[in-house]
Amino acid sequence: MYGSPSSPAQPVQHDGQSLPPDDDYPVAPDGAIGRVISSASNRTRSGWKPMGAQEKALFVIFPLLVFLLGGIVGLVAGQEGVRAVAMQGLPQVMELETPIMVLVGLAGAVVPSVVLIAGMWLLRKARVSWVGTDGAQLWEKGLFGSKSTVLRFSEAGWLTTERVRQYVNGNYSGTRYNFTWWSPQRAKVFVLGGSFRETGLALFGKDLPPAGHDPIRFAEAAERAWSRHKIARLDQEIRTTGVATFQHGSTTLRLGRGFVEVATGGKSERIERAQIASATIQQGVIVLKRQGATEGWFSSEGVYKLPVSGMPDFMVFVMLFEDLLGLRFS
Q: What integer pLDDT is reported at residue 305 of this predicted model?
């Protein structure tokens, strides 16, 4: 189906584990992504790799729902059909009402479920991904052809990330994620989204860490490579202007050697390292507190809060903050 696989230049998956020797790479990476750091494929030369937890759930939940709904519809249709025939002058068919209902119900449950599973299997996409020093690439091949999408770091301005843990009746059901790279003109240039299951959150059962070929691993590896690239850019900005600038909504953050400036609402304040009492990340919110800060229900002074979700280059900000100020987030 894929011809001779092309071996990647490096032996590492996106999760840092060794690359399986029988992974299938039907195409070579685009040279625009630079030296390849990591890669992954969801196929081997002999077939598909095991599904992730979320993909397995889809292959179970959807067919099960169709099985139950189809069975109910089949039972009702069988019963109505028998009664319609009886009313046409064949009352003796009523003696077979129960077995006919069961047979039609089974057919209504099994046939659509099998068709759905077959369709889902046929529509699965072979997926190969690479992360390089200068970009990332995703290649997919489905029933209707192949598509390759390339992210060139030089064409992106910043990255926003979002992770949302989802619960059903108090039980963890998965984490939805979205990694979006934006151009300097605020247009989306590369988007990686999906869902996976984190370990240690489910009330029942035990989730295993996502496999090396799981799409979340690709997104995380691309974020790490982008962060190194962006930090190199900001290093030049710091050498030129003395600060690295981050814009988050109406708030501007400037990081310099030993200080941070916070500008919002037309006001700007510079906080020296010695003036910072604490730097924490609490429930998805960055919290910076000055020495002697007061915090109340309706007003606070010397306390700065920024939501992590949607913050441009959050990982880069954390890394530079800890390096330039010598203070780690807790």
A: 85
Write out the two tokens for 124.
Answer: 């699965």
Between CA 248 and CA 288 the distance in angstroms is 15
Q: What integer pLDDT is reported at residue 2 of this predicted model? A: 29
CA distance 307 to 305: 7
Q: Lowest-confidence range among 4-18, 89-103, 136-150, 214-228? A: 4-18
Q: Residue 88: CB partners within 8 Å, gap ≥ 6? A: none
10 Å CB burial of residue 77 (0-12, 13-18, 19+) is middle
Residue 226 has pLDDT above 50, yes or no: yes
Give the three-state DSSP class for 239.
helix
Phi, psi (degrees; rounded to nearest 5) at 268: -130, 135
| Nearest alpha carbon to residue 176 among 314, 54, 313, 282 | 54
- Say which residues have a Cβ less than 8 Å from residue 84's Cβ, sequence separation at least 6: none
Contacts of 316 (CB under 8 A, 6+ apart): 227, 230, 231, 234
Secondary element (H or E) of residue 54: helix 53-87
What is the distance between the alpha carbons of residues 164 and 168, in angstroms, rounded to a whole number? 13
Counted residue by residue, the chain has a size of 330
CA-based nearest residue to 302, from 315, 312, 290: 290
From residue 129, alpha-carbon distances to 23, 126, 213 in Å are 12, 10, 9
Token code pair at residue 197: 């299951």
Query: Going by CATH, does the domain composed of 242-325 fall within 2.30.29?
Result: yes
